[in-house]
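Our preliminary data section would be incomplete without showing what the modeling component actually yields. Below, a chain of 265 amino acids is followed by its predicted structure, encoded as tokens that our downstream tools consume directly.
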Amino acid sequence: MDYSSYKQLAFDRHPDGVLLITINRPEKYNATDAELHGELARIWRDVSNDPETRVAVVTGAGKAFSAGGDLSMVADIAGNHDRVAHMLSEMSEMVYNIINCEKPIVSAINGVAVGAGTVVALLADISICAKDARIGDGHVKLGVAAGDHAAILWPLLAGMAKARYYLLTGEMLTGEEAERIGMVSKALPREEVLGEAMRVAGELARGSQLSIRLTKRALNGWLRNAGPIFDQSAAYEMLCFMGEDVLEGVAALKEKRAPQFPSAR
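Predicted structure:
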């Protein structure tokens, strides 16, 4: 498998078929611009088809896992029907490609994970998180509905009460709290996260490949069955991108102030 077309993801092959994928935009805390968003959508199909890879580990370069969507990308999408339609398609590709990837995915959440970063971090089959990492789905604070993965995954991981709380308020939670409520597999000191993720990946890579892959496929049946919920939430998010609140949400983030959404006046 040739990964040379990827510009913002870095790849390192390790023994036993472990592929380390690093989100590689550290100067922007690995925030997802249009190019990176597209790469995070399609990489899992390539991993699934890669005969040399048994397990993928994904982490972020520098201090962050991925600090959400680049605000310039968000501003470009707002009110642009063609860009909104493209984003809806790409968002769906990202979620379903992770769910349907034949190979196990282990996330090493080494720092903040927001937006598309949260999608990858939490949809991974096993998630190893820094205790002091901050994880969140801030869609409502941007002025759009919580789309991508959250409506189908968070209630399964943490229960409906916690999912409602964090998705309706947009509050962040630490890796330590995420482990306590079942959002991540393990929470460790930051310096131990990647090492533990690689250890787990190695065990998976040396295990019975067919049984591990079929167990993953069966477990992800829960997410496939919730596909209509995901499709609905994604459409609602994109609908909000055609309104006024998202413009105020972007402006407030840029100006580091509380938003004054038109719908709340």
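The chain has one domain: 9-190+208-264. The mean pLDDT is 96. Preliminary results of this kind motivate Aim 1 of the renewal.
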